[in-house]
Structures are given as structure tokens and as C-alpha cells.
User: Fold 4-hydroxy-2-oxovalerate aldolase from Jeotgalibacillus soli.
Amino acid sequence: MTINRDIVITEVALRDGSHAIGHQYTIEQVTAVAKALDEANVPYIEVAHGDGLGGSSQQYGVSLTDEMELIEAAVSVCKKAKIAVLLLPGIGTMKELRQAASIGAKMARIATHVTEADVAPQHINLAKELGMETVGFLMMSHMVPTKKLVEQAKLMEKYGADTVYVVDSAGAFLPHEVRERIEALRQALDVNIGFHGHNNLSLAMANSLAAIEAGATKIDGSVRCLGAGAGNTQTEVLVAVLERLGLKSGIDLYKMMDLAETIVAPILKTPQEITRNSLVLGYAGVYSSFLLHSQRAAERFNVDSRDILIELGKRKVIGGQEDMILDVAAQIAENPISVKK
Amino acid sequence: MTINRDIVITEVALRDGSHAIGHQYTIEQVTAVAKALDEANVPYIEVAHGDGLGGSSQQYGVSLTDEMELIEAAVSVCKKAKIAVLLLPGIGTMKELRQAASIGAKMARIATHVTEADVAPQHINLAKELGMETVGFLMMSHMVPTKKLVEQAKLMEKYGADTVYVVDSAGAFLPHEVRERIEALRQALDVNIGFHGHNNLSLAMANSLAAIEAGATKIDGSVRCLGAGAGNTQTEVLVAVLERLGLKSGIDLYKMMDLAETIVAPILKTPQEITRNSLVLGYAGVYSSFLLHSQRAAERFNVDSRDILIELGKRKVIGGQEDMILDVAAQIAENPISVKK
Assistant:
């Protein structure tokens, strides 16, 4: 029986949530969560290292359990749900994508920085050859104007992505900014449009609704907010809100509430909330990896780490440019014009 | 020096947050929080039992510390911030209002069920005689159509309220519903309009922004979400979001972040999050006091407590009608047409 869905939700707790628990997922946890999500009629469940396939490393955090074993475990218990994997070209490779497909992953989400869609075509092509659904996943979308975002999204479409996602990696978007971007994409693209939000500014739900109003039909959520930073749009709450709006997710609300409470909540050592660190990352709109570097630089130069992060956000510094952090700290120390009001 | 504020925030953690900690505030906690809020330039700080002045009782929960002592403590450390009190006629009396004014409270928020503004005039009059700013606080505003809400708000204005608040006690509103109501009030009233949200549907921030867009200038927040249910609009996050929108709250963002992290977070035994119970209350749009009754009735009649709560919400059952809960449970047991999809 096909389930009628106005909005198609991808549950990301078993990938994005990996960040929140230091990549310590066990087979038992992934099996229990995936089985319950499948029974609640969740259509897509993403499973991978937090930084995508191949992310397990000293740099990004070593997984307790090999992600391929986690994917196999999830595949083995899902009767209807499809398993999705995330792949950041440069971190993951064709080899991991082939392996994931061979053990049953059905959707490949190819993630690039919002200005670097051009690294994605080979991986999208391979995913299509492997018979997978494909997603172009434009990370840190808030860092570019709408026009640039549309240009990059059109590249993803041209490469063959079935869906293009606007990804608010830092939880920095305001609802009107999301609305403007999704509307522009809706005009420019023929493929599906998705939105992936983070809750650093307590706006993940608001931004997801703005995206839906503007034409997005694919939304990511993490049950119990089990995602990086302040977590994502809380899936079981999203299901409830969509029902209130008369939109069908096809997901069983009571089962989602129950699995959130009894299976997922115990996985978290402390409940997800908006802390000072996650708030400042969302407010500054920068990579979470900048946090620790900025705190160290702040100590060295006797400045406030938040001033550094906000300045990095203004300068649109991206991952790989961490050397800028010391420069910015030194400049603030020399010329302490506070960036705050 | 007068601080320029586009949006005037009232911090409610020391009143609404009392629910979240079982009314166990100590003098030391209230002193520390109020002092830090004052130093961060928060203009109004509400202090009282969670159910308002006089709420300490077996029925509503016995306060560890007499609320008048807490109010005195807060008044004594605030150089600029004004202390507000909440009063629900029927729970609190004129006597407590006089006492609160005599020890330095400067704002009286007179709270009634959204259909019962007519119990407020005496208390508003007294507050004005005592030289206090006055607020008409319309609780459970989601339970009535906009027209009825406007009628009741106009009563509050007629009685002399300086501000009328739309209060989303159950965290049940969706943003478009808030927008419609605030717009209607903006047309109908000359006084200030306020919004008090709860986060049960992860929409407290979205609803606060919708209220502001529609003309509200007074917004309640609770630092670190320290409020009843899933907590309120998170104050330090609201301050950050307003800055991003170019709106002045007059509050120091860094100081708010710091006090949230170092002074308020340690007060919470477990961080605030959206649990199954708070979600179902927001989804059903019912009083939190119905939860335990419904769970007991559900056990007795072998039905799902959520079906009871949702049916109570549909029937717009209000506080004092708890006897309806058993009736509804019995009816669901006899005729188990699930209300869920």
C-alpha cells in the first residue's frame, strides 16, 4: 500500500545525531531506532558517520562502530523505510558509496559547500548508476545570496539530483530568508526541493514551515532533536505540526512520540537544548569546528571568543580557512571595536 | 539614560519557571538571577508563584520560599529593571497585590481565562491606584476565535490595562494563527499588545516573531526555556534573533548568554526539551493539569491518554471541568474511533 505524503521526511538522527553522541552509536541502538522509525512509517532514514560516509577519523571523530555495519543493521530491520547515506566528496569516496549501495542503501545525498556543487557530478552519476535516489545537499546555504544559491542548485539539478536541499548547517537562517530562497528555487528548478534546518536560533521548525509554504516538499528532522549543535527540526513535533496544518507526512504520530520518549531519549546523555555555544554559532553563522579554535585564540589574545566567531561569520570564512582565526583574534586584540551592540 | 527598545521583553523564568522546578526557588537563586538580568538591561522581571500571587497551596504546589520574600530579594538587587507580578483573580487577592506593591513590584499582570476578562477590572483598578503598570493577560487564547479574543481584549483595555497580552498557555498556536489574532487586536485596540508563548510545538520563537510582525511590542521570554511545559520563547535566543532582524531589545546579548549558561542552567535539574507529555499538551491544546487526570482515566478504561487529551481539546474543556475527563475516557472506551490519523 502506498502511503500518501504531502511532505516527505528524512530522519537524520542516525547520521546528524552521531555528532551529538561523539559518533558512539552501537548496533543495538541503530537497530532499535531504525526498526521503530520503520514501524512508524518514516520513509527515509539516514545512517552514516556524522560527517558522512568515510568520516570516521581522528579529524572528524572516530566511530565506535563501522558505519557499514550500522547501515546493514538498519537495512535489515526496515520493511518499508529506505536507508539514505550522506557523502561529502573529499571525505567519502566512490568506494564507500558503492559499498553502501551494495548492502542496501537506496538514497545518496551528495553534500557540498554551497559554492562547490561542481565537485558533486561524479558522485551523483555513480549513485544513479547504482540505482539510488539522489539528493544534492547544499551546506551552509546561508552564506551566499539567493542568486548564487539558485546557480548552485541548478548545477545539482543538471548533474541529475532528484532533489536539491537548502541546508542550514549553522542554524543561522531566519524564516523570511528561507522563504525567499525556496521561492527562488521553486521558480528556477523542476526537481524537488528540500530543507534541512538546525535549531541554534530556535527557528528550525519555523524555517521548515517557511520552506514548506514556499514550495519545499522534502524536510529533514531529527527525533528528540538528536542532531549536531542544538539539533534539527524535531521530527515527532514536525509530524504533529503538519497534522495541525492538514498536511500528510504519512507518519504515525503516536508511534513517533513513543519512540522519541522510550528509545531515542535514553541515547542522549543530556537532553538537547540551546546552549551558549550553539546559540553563538547560529548567531554568527559559522562552522561548529571554529568554536574550539576561536576559544583557544580568544584565550591567547585575551579577547571574547564570540567577537572572533561573529567576525569570522561576517568575513564568510569557511572550513579549511582555520588559519584566519588567529589573524582575526589578533586584529580584535589590537583594535577592540566590539562587534556586539 | 533611557534605553531605546523596539521590543520590550519581560523575563518570566522567576515566575513561569517556578513550575519547572516544583516551586522550589531559593532567595539565593532569585537574587542571583534577578541581579544578572538587571545588569543585562532586561526591563521587566516577573517574580511570583508559577500560578501567580497566592498560588502556593496543596492544589497548585507549595512554594519553598514565600513569594513576597522572593519579590523583595529581586527588588533589592535591581537598579533599573522593574519587578512584575502575575495575579489570577480567584487564586491571588487584592491583599497580595497590595503587599507586592508595598515591597516594590511595579507591574501587575492580571491573568484570566480568555473568556473571563470580566473578572479583572477590580484588580486592574487597584493596581493603577497603587501606581503600577497594568497588563491584561488572556490565558489559553487559542481556545476562542479571533472575534471573541478581540472582544475580551477590548474589555481589558476598557478596564485600564496598559497592555493586553495574547497568552498561548498550552503552546498550541501556529504562527499564522498568532499573526491573524495580533493583526485583529492591532486594528481594534489603542494600547500595547503583548505575546506570551510556550514551546510545546517548537514554535515559541516563530510565534513571537509572527506577533512582532503583526504589531506586538511586548514579548515574554524565559531564559534557558525555564518555564512550564516545554518552556517559553528562550530569552537569550530571542535577543539574538531580534538583533539579526535589526530590532532593539536594549538587552546585552553577551550578558544574557552568560547568565543563561552560568546562573540559570544550573538551576534546572534536567535541561528543558520537548517531551512526549509537553508535545501532546501542545498538540491537543489543553491545560497541563489535565495530563495526570487523563493518564489515570486512560489506565482505568484501558484507552490511550492522548486520545482523551485530544478529545478534551476538541471539546474545549477548561480548568474546573476535570469531571469531563472520566466521561470522555468512558466514551472512547465504548466507541474507540481513534482521533489520531
The first strand of chain A starts at residue 8 and ends at 11. Residues 8-267 of chain A form a domain with the TIM Barrel fold (CATH 3.20.20.70).
